[in-house]
Amino acid sequence: MSDQNLSVLLYKKGEIQMVERPIQEPGPGEVQLCMQQVGICGSDVHFWQHGEIGDFVVKKPMVLGHEGSGMVSKLGEGVTSLKVGDRVAIEPGVPCRTCKHCKSGRYNLCKDCVFCATPPHDGNLSRYFVHAADFCFKLPDHVSCEEGALLEPLSVSVHACNRGGIKLGSKVLVCGAGPIGLVTLLTAKAMGASVVCITDIDESRLTMAKKMGATYTVKVTSRDPQVVAKQIEETMGDLAEITIECSGATPSVQTSIYATEEGGCVVLVGCCPKFIELPVTAASLREVDIRGNLRYANCYPTALEMVASGKVNIKPLITHRFPLEDSMKAFQTTLRGEGIKVMIECAR
Ligand code: 572
Ligand code: ZN
Q: Is the C-beta atom of 157 inside 6 A of ligand 1?
């Protein structure tokens, strides 16, 4: 098999393959990228295992991957912001640019957004990938391509913390210590939170959270949300002012409402089931706002500044590394729930 554009293709539910595909040429305003690093996200594994998330169903083969960085290998017509050889972080969702939400700056709400590895659009887990030049962010020399790839989950956390209104002195609860929970912990602290408590059912993830600066950790052992909320309140000495729910697990979403103080805010970041039972009066009668969250808009520049300035260190998130050829092993590792972030090196 000649190695032209080796790619990780989700052929259909349950079936991923390494395939050779043609290398695309960049069109006007686009760049061709020699992919460097791509992290595996929970959604890549979910599409592989279940063939769908919500309304997004895999109906034809799709290349996986949306947490990527690359090196510019060709410029499309009219591109002046980048040059061949530049290393860039790839913001994976390119919106229509013309709808109401795009024009107001909330382009994450664009209905026509082309997002990598969200059906029917291909992702960037391949040797080469073509992308809009203005959704590529040049990395300074001292920021690695691994860090560039991690700007994607970091941007999720920047948006979530903004949605929650985290500011200097905020007392924050983060539910779930997976990759998104951990970057949210780092971002909340960088935004000035004085206390960050983080929960999980897994002790090793809490150990990691502690190492990354969590003020408190709570190991969740009960499915009763009021019992867990009490445990959190006792640990923090107070209820949380702002809660960022990153697990998507039903009991944890219920806990997030009980564990937030009156007048506070819960941001729903984790992927929940379509319909769940929630303690609505505990939210409504205490004016606890429940806020939605979809990816990010205009957060890559902030995420990059956080890393480039040394305000956050995201490198410890990477626990496994595989070359592109070993992507099947990489996906199996993620499926087994090992480590935190599995990174795939795409360059030969
Ligand atoms: O890194 C962005 C990201 N967003 C996720 C999941 C994983 N990674 N979301 C959850 C699923 N939704 S979706 O709208 N969808 C599959 C397009 O249900 C997007 C946000
Ligand atoms: Zn993701």
A: no
Q: How many CA atoms lie within 13 A of 134 on its CB side?
A: 8
Residue ranges and CATH numbers for the domains of the chain are 6-138+314-345 (3.90.180.10), 156-291 (3.40.50.720)
**Pocket flag, ligand 1, residue 54 (CB < 6 Å):** yes
Contact (CB, 8 A) for 21 and 5: yes
Quote the CA–CA distance of 256 and 174 in Å, as a whole number.
Answer: 9
Residue 41 CA to ligand 2 centre (angstroms): 5
Q: How far apart are CA 94 and CA 170, in angstroms?
A: 33
Q: How far is the CA of 231 from the centre of ligand 2 (A)?
A: 30
pTM over 0.85: yes
pLDDT in tens, the chain (348 residues): 456 999 999 999 999 999 999 999 999 999 999 999 999 999 999 999 999 999 999 999 999 999 999 999 999 999 999 999 999 999 999 999 999 999 999 999 999 999 999 999 999 999 999 999 999 999 999 999 999 999 999 999 999 999 999 999 999 999 999 999 999 999 999 999 999 999 999 999 999 999 999 999 999 999 999 999 999 999 999 999 999 999 999 999 999 999 999 999 999 999 999 999 999 999 999 999 999 999 999 999 999 999 999 999 999 999 999 999 999 999 999 999 999 999 999 999
Taking the centre of ligand 1 as the mean of its atom positions, its distance from the CA of residue 217, in whole angstroms, is 26
Judge if the beta carbon of residue 159 lies within 6 A of ligand 1.
no
Report which protein residue has its CA nearest ligand 1's atom 3. Answer: 295
Picking from 188, 184, 198, 204, the residue whose alpha carbon sits closest to that of residue 319 is 204
Residue whose Cα lies nearest atom 16 of ligand 1: it is: 53
**Residue 66 alpha carbon, nearest atom of ligand 1:** 1
- Would strands 195-200 and 216-219 be described as parallel, antiparallel, or unpaired? parallel
